[in-house]
Each structure stands twice: as C-alpha cells, then as structure tokens.
Amino acid sequence: MTALDIEKPGPAQSQVERMSDAEFVTPAVDIAETAEAFLFSFDMPGVQSQDVDVNIENGVLLVEARPRTIGQDDRAYLLREHRPVGYRRSFTLNVPVAVDAIHAELKNGELLLRVPKAESLKARRIAVKTA
Asked: Can you tell me the distance from the alpha carbon of 51 to that of 58, in angstroms, rounded to the nearest whole number?
C-alpha cells in the first residue's frame, strides 16, 4: 500500500462536471514524496489565491478552486465559447500528516502544496550509548 491513494482520472472524471451552475474540471497534478513531506503541484490557470480552498478531513485532502467570474456575468452573449472553470481534486492520505504545517502557494497558475509528514513518520537516527 502506498502512502497516498492516487487514482488517475477516468473518462467520467476527466470530463467537465456540471454542479450548481458551475463547471469543474480535474486539474493535472504532479506529486513527489520526500522523507519529510508530500509535494503537490496543481495546474490551476485563471484562479487567484482567494479562490482556492485546501482542506484535510478524515484523511482526505480536498483541493477546490472557483474563479470569481463563474456565474457572475450579466452580459447577454451572442456566442460564448470561453467559460471559466473551477477545479476539484481529492486524495486519500494513508499516513498521518502535520495538518498545521501545510504550506500552500499559488504562483503563475500553479498551486504548490507542501504537506509535511507527522513527526512519528520521519526517519530518525537513534543514538546507541555504551552501558
């Protein structure tokens, strides 16, 4: 068993989902693991930091973003091919993490998350003393 349950989006997940008049897509993500943390890099063009929610509950990491322009446009369009989309992705964490130490940063359409592992999981060197 790995530390994360990672599922690639299937055909149903990769298509746009319609939910409460907003559109959501599954963002592309790269995940790396170090001895200290899990590192996530999400592609989320078009969103600002205040549009992003990152939550961990019951071992599930949920990342959502809703650009403010969704559902807030009063124009009468003759043709509208460009629509802002929201993003939603979740992962089950199979190991304890340091929730209070999670760091999130949005830069140039890329959301970077550093999710530190709990202290009990970090590798340690145990000193052996002479009796």
From this structure: 23
